[in-house]
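worker-3 :: picked Metallophosphoesterase
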Amino acid sequence: MRVLFIGDVFAEPGLRAVALHLPDIRNQYDFVIANGENSAGGKGLSRAAYKRLREAGVDLVTLGNHAWDHKDVFELIETEPIIRALNYPPGTPGRGYWVLENSGQSLLVAQVMGRVFLENLDDPFRGMDRLLQEVSADYALVEVHAEATSEKMALGLYLDGRVSAVLGTHTHIPTLDSGFLPKGTAYQTDVGMTGTYRSIIGGEIESFMARFLTAMPQRFKAAEGHARFHATELLCEDGKAVAISPYIWEEPL
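worker-3 :: tokens ->
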């Protein structure tokens, strides 16, 4: 089984990168998953952004701490292959996992959100314990949407040997630590952002810079510019990942 996980798709440059490049490589993968929580202008998931991701070849869209920033998501999440963090409390719209199936093989995809410097959600560690007891599939991929690298690593090590792969998102900066944990789980602290790196984590440089220089609130504006496609490839066999590698494509100048 070959899986492509696309890092946080940010605003128009990110959507453009996915639309331009993914159709050219889509047939190489059994499943394609993308984090789309920043795809609608940098905050949230809109119906139009979701449509572009799906038309390009994305099978499942994941969210994060901006899950509820766009009103469209409340309807989409009840009917479409979209997941939010598993560790939201009971009664939250949507679901925290999805099982994808293709050619007789199944992939459990779950997302948990970290609690360090983010929202005070339920325990992601025990939440994954419960999920793995209740749901089974040939392979399992866990996305950790978190701010602190220590929390991402802790969750990776906690799940080591029990899931095929643990991939981090949210900080928008790709890390060079893709590899395997001691018990065989593939791991990367952050897949990175699909968008323009002529920005401050996807935001317009001037407005973000003003926030640092003045300590005053600034109106958010997504950056425009040259797009980069950041993803992570997984090759899985016999219930586990056997290869993991970053995948990068740049929009032609």
